[in-house]
Amino acid sequence: MSMIALVDCNACYVSCEQIFRPDLRGKAVVVLSNNDGCIIARSKEAKLLGIADLSPYFKQKALLDLHKVKVFSANFRLYGDVSNQVMENLRSFSPRVEQYSIDEMFLDVDRFVDGSENSNLNQYALKMKATLWRHVRMPVGVGVAPTKTLSKLANHAAKHIKKDGVAVLDTPEKWQWLQRRLPVNKIWGIGSQLTKRLNMLGIRTAYELAQADPKQIRRLTSVNVEKTISELNGECCIELEEVMVPKKEIFVTRSFAKKISRLPDLLGHISRYATAAAEKLRRQDSYCQQLYVFVRTSRFKEDYYTNSVEARLPYPTSDTAVLIHYAKQAMMTLYKSDCLFAQCGIGLLDIRHRCFYQTDFLMPEQSSKTDCLMQTLDKVNQRYGRDTLTFGAEGLLGRWTMKQAKLSPSYTSSWKDLPRINCSL
Amino acid sequence: MSLIHFSILPAEFSNLALPLFSSRVSAGFPSPADDFIERSLDLNEFLVAHPASTFFAWAEGDSLRDIGILDGDLLIIDRAIERTQGVVVVASIDGELTCKILDLRHKRLLAANPDYPSIDIADKEDLLIEGVVVFSIKKHLHS
Fold this sequence. Notes:
The structure holds two protein chains of two kinds.
Chain A: E1 4-9, H1 12-19, E2 29-32, E3 39-42, H2 44-48, H3 57-66, E4 70-73, H4 76-91, E5 97-101, E6 104-108, H5 118-136, E7 140-145, H6 148-160, E8 166-168, H7 172-181, H8 192-200, H9 206-211, H10 214-220, H11 223-232, E9 250-260, H12 263-283, E10 286-297, E11 306-317, H13 320-334, E12 341-353, H14 368-384, E13 420-422
Parallel strand pairs in A: 2-4, 7-8
Antiparallel strand pairs in A: 1-6, 1-7, 2-3, 5-6, 9-12, 10-11, 10-12
Chain B: H1 11-14, E1 18-19, E2 40-41, H2 43-47, E3 54-60, E4 74-78, E5 88-93, E6 96-103, E7 108-110, E8 119-120, H3 125-128, E9 129-137
Antiparallel strand pairs in B: 1-2, 3-4, 4-9, 5-6, 5-9, 6-7, 7-8
């Protein structure tokens, strides 16, 4: 029987903030989303205070202030670096791994534990947990089971039921015991829509879905749910994806801090988003050939206006200049002079890795000079900080007017921000 | 295939490439040293044995003066190293990160400066010790 471990960081962003701040460990801490909009991570202690997940910051502010909860703006650079260290440590536990997200990793642990003795798998999982705490100061939960779907459930048990943060489901008795206790929406891949549908069919617990007729469920929902049923019964249908698939679409969307009515301001914003999207595109070494731009006014005002346009690019590209050019043209077709715009965004579509684009003699292609220029641009901005080199179209003033009032230092990515060790004690 | 770009160490550090050997091009006979020039020195390789458990920090203060760690030195701290008698450690004391010498035998943390007291750790070392200082780097050119 193959065995898959799912390692999931506990309140990942909060735990990252606590690594170089031991004074905050065991305290109520929360992290806010981009623009300090919503609460996106809470420490256990913050949860116990009744601070709601994904709720707007301003709504929780009174409660946060009352309990002196430490609040951080999202520091994604820090979280990315910590995540890389977590993943590197996990790779030493199995050569077959899939990084599922910034804070979750699937590992094939089958070959490393001989026999089916529970204690061995359990010990292996405990060792992973202990290593991540010692090497990175990242608390995790580890769930082990024969399939990805079951290992997700095991992870839930590891975090919410077991005291040691590790759960192994290696027999049908064990996973059925858990399935009887979990509602169907706790299953990986069963979202709110599917939950409603399944509830209508009388399926409420994970166990009821596991016991349902796969063919009938497939007819009423989709082939994916049929796979889920097999996986819930220990039959592996979803393989480990060891190679990360590049994103097929990249979107950059922001609400403006202040409503905008002038066209030049809108062009400045869309140019900046085009720049950010192009950076992401180049980071995965890809080109795109389709561009999507949208604008909208406030939904809560009268005369709500929203519109979007898609444009085919003349050739597959990752050139910021080209993307800005077409994004601005698209924006000009969408603009209406009597509107107060609240949001705009750009999407890059039809994305493929550079080497998967067929070139032919009739189609122009991105020159190697442009590749080189873009590389240099990215390098300079990486080294000397974002926005060191920008395109004129982005404007000089606006920049990323992102609100990050409570940002922690760049402990891992800036010399001046390295942690300070007090040698006066 | 590892697609994860390991970026906890600053990029400029990793790109520091010093040629180990470089022989002059001479016509005719190939230099025996040419076999070695593919390798270049990478300071990371020397300073960071375990990238996945290492972090950098600045020392502030002079409590470790007598073992040569002074204010403004760069510390390289590895959390994976075994905590044995006499190693220099970073510990978290009352929520603050500090640097001391580990005296396991007497269960205490020592300063390296008579002006500072030792700290009793009585079986709390796992709780308190964050990592082991493997290098301190001092800048001698002050411009």
